[in-house]
Amino acid sequence: GAVVSQHPSWVICKSGTSVKIECRSLDFQATTMFWYRQFPKQSLMLMATSNEGSKATYEQGVEKDKFLINHASLTLSTLTVTSAHPEDSSFYICSARDGAGGTYNEQFFGPGTRLTVL
Amino acid sequence: GENVEQHPSTLSVQEGDSAVIKCTYSDSASNYFPWYKQELGKRPQLIIDIRSNVGEKKDQRIAVTLNKTAKHFSLHITETQPEDSAVYFCAAGGGYQKVTFGTGTKLQVIP
Questions:
Q1: Closest to B87 in 3D by CA, of B71, B66, B104
Q2: Cα–Cα distance between B6 and B18 in angstroms, integer?
Q3: Which of B44, B95, B96 sits opposite A44 (nearest CB)?
Q4: Over the stretch B62-91, which tens digit does the pLDDT of each residue have?
């Protein structure tokens, strides 16, 4: 089946620093990737939709200058949390959709990145 | 945009009993309804999905029903086992677009 990896799996950083999270589709080409944020005991909240070669589409209330998304290739999307603050601490999960028309609309999720900002 | 409501938020059942989780959605254009199982600290796993041209789908102990007129869909798990304990999310979306997740149901199967 389709495999999506994320790196790092966890990161601890100081307030004010920037953190980059990578999302890779390992065995398929992902024309679209999604970035979610999940707080403890809550649902997955979509932050943005990332399309290869174009600008990401951000959900209402998500600051695009704070959460920088780059989808430079069909297998890699990155999320950079700039000037991180403690309230940005969360579980960040990406998902990817097979651009070759595989299973209709199924998203394959990465394992997530636990971000802790001190 | 789409709004998905999910009930109940927590559900405890005895091993072997059935569990039912219900979701409603708001956007009549949605035509894809996946269900995910998420264990603590792990990624969501697709367990079953249904498209709007189908009213019911079954996969072993798991079944999903869809009522497009009423805009609701349900997950049914029969003969529950302790390993079914997890958080379950419904979601709704359209075509090749994004999906919106429900608020989640924490299922506990008591041995």
A1: B104
A2: 18
A3: B44
A4: 999 999 999 999 999 999 999 999 999 999
Report cis status (omega within 30 of 0) of the bond before A111: no
Backbone angles phi, psi at A9, to 5 degrees: -80, -30
Q: How far apart are CA B33 and CA B56, in angstroms?
A: 11
- How far the first Cα of chain A sits from its last, in Å, is 37
Q: What is the band of A13 on the pLDDT scale with cuts at 50, 70, 90?
A: very high
Count CB atoms within 10 A of the CB of residue A63: 10
Q: pLDDT at position A78, please? A: 95
Sheet holding B62-67, edge to edge: B4-7, B19-25, B72-77, B62-67, B56-59
Please indicate whether, in this complex, the C-beta atoms of B34 and A106 are within 8 angstroms of each other. Answer: yes
Which class for A80: exposed (0-12), middle (13-18), buried (19 or more C-beta within 10 A)? middle
Q: Which residue of B has its CA nearest to A4?
A: B43
Query: Tokens 């990817």 label which residue?
Result: A96
DSSP state of B28: T
The single-letter DSSP state of residue B35 is E
C-alpha B87/C-alpha B105 separation (Å) is 5
Contact B96 A105 (CB under 8 A): yes
B81 to chain A, any CB pair closer than 8 A? The answer is no
